[in-house]
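sorry for the late reply, my laptop died twice this morning and i had to redo everyting from scratch. anyway the thing you sent over, i finally got around to it. pasting the sequence first so we're on the same page, its 138 residues, then the predicted structure underneath. double check i copied it right bc i was rushing
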Amino acid sequence: MLLERIASEMNRLKFYIANAQGMPFIENMVKRIQNTSLLLDTSLGHCFIDGLGHRDANALYNCLRAYAVIDNTTSAEEIFRSTVVAPFMQNIIPYGSPGTVGMSSGDDLEKDYGRIKQHIQDDYKFLLDISSTGMLFI
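ok and here's the structure:
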């Protein structure tokens, strides 16, 4: 909840910067605001990874809402892609192994597809439920 509030205030600061360009006070603050924005992005990333690791739906919900507030949901997508999807897909389809490219039969592909679907259903259905509620973007 705190990160969501900080994200809201960061959004307000960015609005003020965009509308008050050229004012000395704002120009003196731009560097500090940029550093704060980077710190917020880093904190949201840690929050998202921790929420995924602990399967904490409430933390993930608040974190995703904060990402939506600052209009940076692509960062959450990238974190999910790099910390969850890529390692899992590496286990399913080991890159660089001899004979993996072009050697899969239809049965192997069906098996791989089934494993992917099962993994999503077992481990990340709660995240799908959170992100599809529609409440994130209000």
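The helical segments are 2-19, 24-54, 57-69, 73-92, 106-123, 125-131.
thats about all i looked at so far, will dig more tmrw
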